[in-house]
Design a protein that fits this description.
The chain has 172 residues and is an all-alpha fold. It has a domain of 105 residues. Helix 2 runs parallel beside helix 6. 13% of the residues are buried.
Length: 172
């Protein structure tokens, strides 16, 4: 009886830890730079709004190449967990964009007499902005992977019959 063990991706875990530490550092030490700086907050809001739109487009493309590549129900079933993982990562990133935008808006809503709360919200905002920004560096790679998968599907479809037969062991 064999049991499946998920392989731990230590590189991804290391990147996550480094991102969290860098974000905490930036949030704490650079917070004074955004205090009462509406332009800085508005810039972040604009950038993350654009990134959120880009991510929605990416989410619509993720499953398409896999669905085209599958030859039958069994292959679709085998690919389901991979697609779910890809979609979950992008979904989490999208919600982090929205969370960042929400915290940005909250920086404007805190009254001037609640300076201590404002400082903590600004630290959170800057740390979250840094973390989500670092996390967004994976988006181009995801898009390239999707496009290359589409390219492979189209190549397989247009492959000459002679090459298909050789690949299947049907040489005569």
């Amino acid at each position: 009886m064999s049991t499946k063990h998920a392989k731990t991706d230590w590189t991804r875990i290391l990147k996550l830890v480094i991102s969290i530490l860098a974000s905490a550092f930036v949030g704490y030490f650079f917070q004074p730079m955004i205090t009462k700086n509406a332009n800085a907050v508005n810039t972040v809001v604009t950038v993350f709004s654009v990134l959120a739109g880009f991510l929605i487009a990416l989410l619509t493309l993720i499953a398409e190449p896999t669905l085209k590549r599958a030859k039958d129900w069994q292959e679709l079933q085998l690919m389901k967990s991979t697609i779910e993982r890809k979609l979950l990562r992008q979904k989490i990133l999208f919600f982090m964009y929205l969370l960042t935008l929400g915290v940005a808006i909250s920086t404007f809503l805190i009254p001037d007499n609640m300076e201590n709360i404002r400082v903590y919200v600004e630290i959170t905002f800057l740390g979250l902005t840094t973390f989500v920004f670092i996390s967004s560096f994976g988006l181009p790679g995801s898009l390239i992977d999707i496009q290359m998968e589409r390219y492979s599907i189209e190549m397989d479809k247009s492959k000459p019959k002679v090459l298909t037969d050789i690949g299947n062991g049907d040489s005569k």
